[in-house]
Amino acid sequence: WIMGWFLEKLKIPSFHRFLSLLYICTLPKFMMIFSTYNNDSLVTMLLVVSIVLSYKLYLEWNNNFAILLLLVSTAALYTKYSAVMCIGVLILICAKDLIKLRLPGYAERKVLAVLFSSLILFAPWVYFHNYKETHKFFPNNTEHGLGSDLAIDDDRPVIDTIIRLPISLNSGSHEWDDPWAHGYSRPESKKHNYWAFCFITSLFSENVYEKPGIDIVWLMFWLNLVIVLLGLSRIKKTSLTKLSALLIGLAHLAHIILLLSMEHPAACTMDYRYLSWSWIAWAVLYSDLLNEKSELSRVFSKLLIVAVILHSYTLIVLFGNGT
Questions:
Q1: What is the phi/psi pair of residue 278, to 5°?
Q2: DSSP assignment of 249-266, as one string?
Q3: How high is the pLDDT of residue 195?
Q4: Which pLDDT score is estimated for 254?
Q5: Helix (H) or strand (E) holding 67
Q6: Which residues contact 147 (CB under 8 A, 6 or more apart)?
Q7: Is-contact 248 283, C-beta < 8 A?
């Protein structure tokens, strides 16, 4: 509903926003996050609201919405530490004029003040609770040993996992024998392939399912990859799509920095749930392409409809929960 309201305010035609959101909302990953109440579902919702409010305040300042942004962004930080990535991304976007050695505009500075205020309100918990108890500002479970089976630095540096090509060029590799992420060590595991692991978990999470059949899963994989690439083709079309692409790019940069900052990052840390708040940026890219009167737009709408059907079928027959 929040993303739909946002797209409506952007004057996206109703059918285009409905189709782009239906595609995202029928993704198995989306359903896995929001079909149960957990900190991932709550923090994703709060961060999407924070993104929407930040953009609205940039366009038109409103004291009530500023207070709401402060409350929502602070609540997101207290819900899950990883919310720092989204808040940091929003701060970088608002301060992007500094790259050109210019001060951010007046509207950006006011949004920055709210976002920095939320970090200030979060600071007491970070220091008095986290640091006082653990001597770390952001302690995490992997530091207490989840086992080498899950660690992505078990036999190579973390940076190797990040810069590695999504498709292995090694003819003897079994990495792509199946389309699952496999967080544990095994020949088919993608735990040493950041981009592959992140993309697969954006569709199916980290689980391995017995149903639907593997052919359907591969079809979903390739279809969604084409949809993502077509969405990325909109990067330079409008100022809003440029902003959306910037948010997606910075989200992945923040995710990578998180991995590099951890002592022994586990494969589960590469899960797309840490970036699920960037779905709103993808919705903008998809809606923009649908809104274009071209043959590509018509083909894209058909691809989304087929994807929605496949997603829905998968959710109906989904069975199994292995890793």
A1: -80, 0
A2: HHHHHHHHHHHHHSSS-B
A3: 92
A4: 95
A5: helix 63-79
A6: none
A7: no
The whole-model pTM stands at 0.90
Query: How many CB atoms neighbour CB 25 within 10 A?
Result: 16
Q: For residue 276, which of 112, 70, 82 has the smallest C-alpha distance?
A: 82
pLDDT at 103: 85
Q: Within 10 Å of residue 6's Cβ, how many Cβ atoms? A: 21
Rounded CA-CA distance 315/205 in Å is: 13
What phi and psi, each to the nearest 5 degrees, are found at residue 176?
A: -110, 30
Low-confidence ranges of the chain (pLDDT < 50): none
Predicted local confidence at residue 169, as pLDDT: 57
Contacts of 259 (CB under 8 A, 6+ apart): 152, 158, 161, 162, 194, 265, 269, 270
Quote the pLDDT of residue 78.
Answer: 93
d(Cα 47, Cα 276) in Å, to the nearest integer?
9
- What's the pLDDT at 67? 96
Count Cβ atoms below 10 Å from residue 240 Cβ, excluding itself.
Answer: 16
